[in-house]
Write a structure and sequence with these properties.
The complex is a heterodimer of chains A (about 160) and B (about 120). Chain A has about 160 residues and is mainly α. Chain A has five helices and one strand. The longest helix of chain B is centred in the first third of the chain and has 13 residues. Classes of the chains: A mainly alpha (about 160), B alpha/beta (about 120).
Chain lengths: ~160, ~120
């Protein structure tokens, strides 16, 4: 006697093959992505702590440099210029931090997708995914890396616009 | 009496760089980690100017500018956006919200102090 309650598969042979591949791939991603995300988070946290430590140390050094410059009767010592350059260099950590956070978020988004039961056999829209990622960029480096262009990295725009 | 500048950024290290630059120039500095915390910090205080990041959790910089400008006491408080955002569209958004200047990170402490002095003479 035929069991009418048995699930009826509407998948074509191609979809079945795709599902057979995507299943293990999704399983692999669901294991790998959290590991990658933890690595990213640790890198970001460690660089945050390191930069804050450096800033605290340089706060003391800067005060001493100012005193030395005043004693020498100079208001613009070369050492002071170096401190200024250092403050600018340390701000790159903030940029890296933002880039890493965005990657972390996107991995989280992918993890949620591969963990979803609807992901197997689903036709993913890569262009839509990339457009969503691109919409969250803030820096010129991110747009350059996204497109895969090989133009040399530019220093950030050090300009002020007054409205 | 030293003028008071509110620094709003979710990065503690960035807030520290801004604070060191402004305090070195004689300003008094208040700090907040996002727009919502900055609004709570305002709370009727005398704040002469704000230096604000754009991309922050809870309440971003553009939302903060709009919210601060809606408060009568802070309607004319100049706000400088200090951000990694260099896209013209975002800059226009900041201008439309009521920001007075837009500076892209990484900034030179001297440029920041000069911009603050210009907006808050």
């Amino acid at each position: 006697m035929k069991n009418n309650s048995a699930p009826v598969s509407h998948q074509s042979d191609d979809e079945k093959v795709l599902g057979a591949v995507q299943g293990p791939l999704a399983a692999l991603c669901s294991v790998l992505l959290p590991v990658w995300m933890r690595h990213l988070q640790t890198s970001k946290d460690q660089s945050d702590v390191a930069v804050q430590g450096m800033l605290h140390s340089f706060a003391g050094i800067e005060a001493q440099l100012k005193q030395c410059a005043e004693l020498a009767g100079r208001s613009d010592s070369p050492a002071q210029e170096n401190v200024e350059s250092m403050y600018m260099a340390l701000q790159y950590q903030d940029r890296y931090g933002q880039m890493l956070s965005l990657l972390h978020e996107d991995m989280d988004r992918l993890l949620a997708l591969v963990g979803s039961p609807n992901s197997v056999g689903h036709d993913f829209d890569a262009a839509n995914w990339l457009a969503n990622l691109e919409s969250k960029y803030a820096m010129t480096e991110q747009y350059r890396d996204h497109s895969g262009r090989s133009d040399p990295p530019q220093s950030a725009d050090n300009e002020t616009s007054f409205f | 009496m030293a003028k008071t500048i509110l620094v709003v950024d979710d990065s503690a290290s960035l807030r520290q760089v801004v604070k060191m630059a402004l305090q070195g120039a004689g300003y008094s500095v208040l700090e907040a980690g996002d727009g919502a915390a900055a609004l709570a910090l305002l709370d009727g205080r005398t704040v002469d100017m704000a230096v604000c990041d754009v991309n922050m959790p809870r309440m971003n910089g553009i939302e903060f500018v709009k919210a601060a400008k809606a408060l009568p006491k802070y309607r004319f408080m100049p706000i400088l956006m200090l951000t990694t955002e260099s896209q013209d569209a975002k800059k226009e958004e900041g201008k439309a919200a009521g920001a007075k200047a837009w500076m892209v990170k990484p900034f030179s402490p001297t440029s920041l102090v000069n911009a603050v002095a210009k907006l808050c003479p």
